[in-house]
Amino acid sequence: MTRSHALSRRRLSLLPLAGLAVPSIARAQQWPDRPLRAVIPWPPGGQVDKYGRPLAEALAQALGRPVVVENRGGAGGLLGTEYVSRAPADGYTLLLNNNIGFIGNAAANPSVLRFDPIRDFAPIGIFHESAVVFLAHPSLGVRTFDEFLAAARASTQPLPYASSGGGSSGSLATQALQRKYGLEFLEVVYQGGGPRLTALLSGEVKFASTDIALVREYVTTGALRPLISVGRRRQNVWPDIPCFGDIGLTDFDYGNWQALLVPAGVPASIQARLRDALDQARRSPLFERASDDGEIIFQTGQEAVERIRRGYEERLRLPASPA
Questions:
Q1: What is the pLDDT along the chain (323 residues), one digit of tens a residue?
Q2: How many CB atoms neighbour CB 101 within 10 A?
C-alpha cells in the first residue's frame, strides 16, 4: 500500500468521529431553539418559589425563549435536585435551588443521596442572599430574644421548631443556639418553606427561622414576633433586633443563598450564555421587585464553585443533629 493510500484510509476512518461532533456543536450554537425548564425542588409558596419564579420570567426575557417553572418537591429538595442531575446535559433543564436543598440536606443525608452536588452540577451563579430571622408564635409569650431564652430554659418540654431538614440553615442555626446556651429543642421537619410557615402561623410549632421576605406582613400584624437574625450584621428591616454577630456566632456561613445550576457536562458556550442571561435577569426590574428583602448578588465561576464546596464541606464536618 502506498503512503498516499494509507493517509487516505486514515482520513476516512476519522470521518465518522468528526460527523458525531458536528451535530453536537451545531446544537450548542443554535441553543436555545425551544422552551427551557427550570426545576424548583420544593413545593409552591416557599422561599425558592418567591425568587425563582420572577427570575425564570426575567431569564425568559433575556433568552428570548419561555422558561417553564416546574415544582418537584420532596425529601427536603433532594428528589428534584436528583432529577435534574440525571437530565440531559443540553442546557434545557435548569435547577433553581437554595443552599438548604442543594448542599444542606445533601450533607445531612449521605445514606440516601444519589447525586454529588459538587461533581454532578455546574453552577451558573449564586444570584441572591436572603435575610433570615428567627420568629416566635405569640402563644410562647415572648417579645425579645432574651425572653425567648428564658422561656426555653423554663419549659418542661423541649420547644418544637419548624425546619426544612437537618442540613438546612434554620436547623443548623438552631443547633448552634442549643450548643451555645445548653438548650434542647424539638425539630419538626416540613417539606418546604410554605408548609413550615403555615405550621408556625398556626402555633403547631413555637418558633422557626425563615426568610424575612416571607414574614414581614405577619410581623406587622402581630401574628409573629421577630427574635434574632441569622448573620454577622443586623438587618436593615428590623435594626433593633439582635443578630448572630451580637452573640458571637460568626464562625459559620449561615447565609441562605439562591443559585441557578445545570447538570455537569452542559457545553461551556451554553453555560456562558446562561451566565450572561442570569446577569441580565438579576438586574431586571421584575426580579428586583421580588428581592427587596434580601441582597442581589452575582457569584459565578470559581467563586461560586468554592462557596458551594466550602459550605458543603462545613456541613459534612458538623456533629449529628441532637436526638
A1: 555 554 445 444 444 554 554 555 656 678 999 999 999 999 898 889 989 999 999 999 999 999 999 999 988 899 999 999 999 999 999 999 998 889 988 888 888 899 999 999 999 999 998 878 999 999 999 999 999 999 999 999 999 999 877 667 788 889 899 999 999 999 999 877 788 999 999 999 999 998 887 898 999 999 999 999 988 888 878 889 999 999 999 877 777 899 999 999 999 999 999 999 999 999 999 898 877 666 788 999 999 999 999 989 888 887 655 44
A2: 31
Give the CATH fold of the 34-129+254-317 domain: D-Maltodextrin-Binding Protein; domain 2 (3.40.190)
Can you name the residues that pair with 8 across neighbouring β-strands?
Answer: none
Domains 34-129+254-317 and 132-247 share a fold: yes
> What is the rounded radius of gyration, in angstroms, for the C-alpha atoms of the chain?
23
Domain topology for 132-247: D-Maltodextrin-Binding Protein; domain 2 (3.40.190)
- How far is the CA of 167 from the CAs of 170, 189, 236, in angstroms? 8, 11, 27
d(CA 271, CA 255): 25
Q: How far apart are CA 227 and CA 245, in angstroms?
A: 14
pTM score: 0.75
What is the residue extent of each domain of the chain?
A: 34-129+254-317, 132-247
Residues 293, 130: contact at Cβ < 8 Å?
yes
Within 10 A of 234 (CB to CB), how many other CB atoms are there? 18
